[in-house]
Design brief:
This protein is mainly beta. The protein contains no helices and eleven strands.
């Protein structure tokens, strides 16, 4: 059974930082593209960032480029999202995802339960 378990969410002031982590189990981690999506209240789910199997290539949404950094540790089955210079509009539930290819949300086979990130002004 595949499980993706996120941690690291919380409440932070605008301009602050948070680091999200996701530990995967039940799959061959290095075979999967890992990523993060988010969903704010009343809004559609949106792509945040993704990283390829070896970690060589990363992809970011324009809204987070230069502020967020995705990384992975295949030895620990972990993917991280370092979020700096947080803005109120970053407030959302953040989901860890795993898939065999890059793509839209439907391309990812597995999703975590989500972790809440709230940015206050």
């Amino acid at each position: 059974q595949v499980q993706l378990v996120e941690s690291g969410g919380g409440l932070v002031q605008a301009g602050g930082s948070l680091r999200l982590s996701c530990v995967a189990s039940g799959l061959t981690f290095s075979n999967y593209v890992m990523g993060w999506f988010r969903q704010a209240p009343g809004k559609e789910r949106e792509f945040v960032a993704a990283i390829t199997w070896s970690g060589v290539r990363t992809l970011y949404a324009e809204s987070v480029k230069g502020r967020f950094t995705i990384s992975r540790d295949n030895a620990k089955n972990t993917v991280n999202l370092q979020m700096n210079s947080l803005k109120r509009e970053d407030t959302a539930v953040y989901y860890c995802v795993a898939g065999l290819e890059y793509g839209p949300a439907a391309a990812y086979d597995y999703w975590g339960q989500g972790t809440q990130v709230t940015v206050s002004s």
